[in-house]
Specification:
By secondary structure, this protein is an alpha/beta fold. The protein has 2 domains: 4-89, Methionine synthase domain (Methyltransferase, Methionine Synthase (B12-binding Domains), Chain A, domain 1); 94-205, Cobalamin-binding domain (Rossmann fold, 3-Layer(aba) Sandwich), CATH 3.40.50. The protein has helices at residues 4-16, 20-32, 37-57, 63-80, 107-118, 132-142, 154-170, 185-191, 200-220, and strands at 94-99, 122-125, 146-150, 175-179, 195-197. It has a 5-stranded parallel sheet with strand order 2-1-3-4-5, with helices on both faces. α8 (185-191) links the parallel β4 and β5.
Length: 221
């Protein structure tokens, strides 16, 4: 019988080393031993992804590695997630996410989406090259607390300002997070956004920090 610590280490390491089979085996073993599914997700899989985020920020891992780590993480999530009672699943919050109209880049956006996924948020992914009004319509339809937009070109970035104005007019309580290469903190402030991620890497670490804060809140709770 494996101890809880041994299995958490296996889950964490499996994600960092992108060993999907190891993660799946450890996830199944975690359930077989009768441990709490959400603990496995947060203290095993998500903790591993925090390490991946650090490696990415230090340029030791690049997008291909992060995507392989994501596959390993999703492999474990598929096994553990169904065993989490609804009310316990992280923060029951919703986020609308997408790359702005005219922008076909979506790797950074997909990484952030994954972080929200792991944290137990309901993610409404609009994809890439999303018409501006779709962000507004989807927020109103889902009543999501957060709207996350990414742009990789200065020409498409200007669309974000329009979306923020449209959303704030209909619903001033929505938190809006911007990301992408041309976006700076000053731009985000100027456009009226509530949060900012400086690049795909920074967006990942922002997402990971959110998970970190969730885990701290759970630990205190």
């Amino acid at each position: 019988m494996a101890t809880q610590e041994e299995l958490l280490e296996k889950l964490k390491e499996g994600v960092v080393e992108y060993e999907e089979d190891t993660v799946k085996e450890a996830s199944q073993q975690w359930l077989d031993e009768g441990y709490v599914a959400l603990d496995g997700i947060m203290d095993g899989l998500a903790a591993g992804m925090e390490i991946v985020g650090d490696l990415y920020d230090k340029n030791e891992y690049f997008v291909p590695e992060v995507l392989m780590c994501a596959d390993a993480l999703y492999g474990g999530l598929a096994i553990l997630r169904p065993h989490v009672p609804d009310s316990d699943e992280g923060v029951n919050a919703q986020v609308v996410i997408g790359s702005i109209q005219g922008d076909v880049h979506d790797i950074g956006k997909n990484l952030v989406k994954m972080m929200f996924d792991v944290a137990g948020w309901d993610v409404h992914d609009l994809g890439r090259d999303v018409p501006l009004e779709n962000f507004v319509e989807e927020q109103l339809r889902t009543d999501s607390e957060v709207v996350a937009m990414s742009a990789m070109m200065t020409t498409t970035m200007l669309g974000m300002k329009k979306v923020i104005a449209m959303i704030k007019e209909k619903n001033p309580n929505v938190a809006i997070m911007l990301g992408g290469a041309p976006v700076t903190k000053d731009v985000a402030n100027l456009f009226g956004a509530d949060g900012y991620a400086e690049s795909a890497g920074n967006a990942v670490s922002e997402g990971i920090k959110m998970i970190g804060r969730l885990r701290e809140m759970r630990a205190k709770g």
